[in-house]
Design brief:
Its main location: membrane. It is a multi-pass membrane protein. InterPro entries: GspF/PilC, T2SS_GspF_dom. One of its GO terms (cellular component) is plasma membrane. The chain is mainly α and about 70 residues long. Helix 1 packs antiparallel against helix 2.
């Protein structure tokens, strides 16, 4: 796609204009992809952090509950 656009621009002597348009198009595409990555990664990071916090809490409180069972016997 880009090659054919450059060839046509070269034939009509409009290379600078065509490269400016291509630059804008690719910048918009990269910006969109970056936003999509952020939208996808944010919930995943929150879930991973939640799981880590949950594991830490269970590992801290499980021995306390075991100790209370032993004391109540």
């Amino acid at each position: 796609k880009m090659v054919s656009m450059v060839e046509v621009a070269e034939q009509v002597n409009q290379l600078e204009t065509m490269f400016e348009r291509l630059t804008e198009q690719y910048n918009e595409e990269i910006s969109h992809q970056t936003k999509m990555i952020g939208v996808i990664l944010e919930p995943m990071i929150i879930i991973v952090i939640g799981v880590i916090v949950g594991v830490i809490m269970v590992s801290m409180y499980a021995p306390m509950f075991d100790l209370s069972k032993i004391i109540n016997k």
